[in-house]
Amino acid sequence: MASIAVCPGSFDPITNGHLDIITRGAKVFDEVKVVVLNNSSKQPLFTVEERINLIKEVTKNIPNVKVDSFQGLLIDYAKNVGASAIIRGLRAVSDFEYEMQITSMNRVLNDEIETFFIMTNNQYSFLSSSIVKEVAKYNGKITELVPPPVEKALKAKFIK
């Protein structure tokens, strides 16, 4: 039986930190489903479709990565696609506290799906989509923060 993991996020936009977690997860699991969620508490810069297309573009050389989107409970999505695991990236202790709450709730809802935390590489420990958008908005250098297709898409959004 193939091992399937779900790697969820808003990915608005996907960063090199996200890509690091996805790539490392793809080495452990037979299939990694990167799933874009539409977080109602955030105002996204990119549409769900744009985010899916960017993720597909930057992961096209990782054959066991698939990209999808969902609404609702992540644990329900994971069960529906036959996933046995959820992959979450951690940057700092503050991430852990939040992720522990989510993981605990997911275990209450379905204790057959495990959550695996992957510590980000130190070079990305400060990196978030929000920071990238803020720097890009003011035409700052983001070349080392995001893959080239994402940099191009950000410039198209901000440079009119």
From TrEMBL:
It is found in: Cytoplasm. ATP binds at residues 10-11, 18, 89-91, 99, 124-130. The record marks 18 as: Transition state stabilizer. This is Phosphopantetheine adenylyltransferase. Keywords: ATP-binding, Coenzyme A biosynthesis, Cytoplasm, Magnesium, Nucleotide-binding, Nucleotidyltransferase, Transferase. Reversibly transfers an adenylyl group from ATP to 4'-phosphopantetheine, yielding dephospho-CoA (dPCoA) and pyrophosphate. Substrate binds at residues 10, 42, 74, 88. Transmembrane segments: none annotated. Its cofactor is Mg(2+). Residues 6-134 form the Cytidyltransferase-like domain. Homohexamer. It comes from Cytobacillus spartinae. Pfam families: CTP_transf_like (PF01467). It catalyses: (R)-4'-phosphopantetheine + ATP + H(+) = 3'-dephospho-CoA + diphosphate. It comes from the Bacteria.
